[in-house]
Design a protein that fits this description.
Strand content: 15-25%
Amino acid sequence: MTGMNPLLEARDVIVEFPVKGWRRPPFRALKGVSLTIDPGETLGLVGESGSGKTTLGRAILGLAPVTGGDIRFAGRTVSGLGKRERRALSKDIQVVFQDPYTSLNPAMTVGDILTEPLLVAGTSRADAERRVRGLLDEVHLPADTAHRLPREFSGGQRQRLAIARALSRDPKLIVCDEPVSALDLSTQARVLDLFIEIQERTGVAYLFVTHDLSVVRHISHRVAVMYRGEIVEDGDAGVVTSAPAHPYTQRLLLAAPVPDPARQAQRRAERHRFLAEQAV
């Protein structure tokens, strides 16, 4: 993925939020974060709750205020765009949220949910309906899905619908905000494989936000690790998720569950020993 211009580039991004109280300084959620994503690449962004990883994803989507630094997409500065320009950019940058049910309008059929962004963009209804049939096939759902409501589907199927909606306008980048954390392990694996399959077919890039190192190992080309609003380690996914250099990443790795009970007990003991050494 080297030797090309980045699709997305964040340079020293700072995000601050106001804090209640007389003259209290704002809370700095991001403290000068920099990263790049190449076309067709998956960057896994990993960290615990409160690390700032979701805030960075929201800043890229224009949903969090960028106080300092710069976010560029395809060479163009996109931080600070107005609503109209941001809507135009949504063709190229889409999102899949953690909870597929709350992100899908429960009062609309799947067909209406998927055709809406296409109709708003000026696509004819006939072409939009044809595109929806293709999208449902891409995410391995039957054609009659279009006539049903979101509540009629399982969590994994609803996430497939959310992925289909994100794909509807052929984006170049999808921000995936914990998209499998609400799913059981077997469903997680199937949805992750679907993301990989779609990327191989379309060349879309992903920013994959998660707290789980095992998830980013499965799907990512590179991994960036966030801690308290800063990136503390980044590099090849295989290296970062198997032999991390930073103590925080080492702690995350030891906290990740493994299917072997004996290995899990050993890992738990290693984590307790590691934490005790860090506390000294």
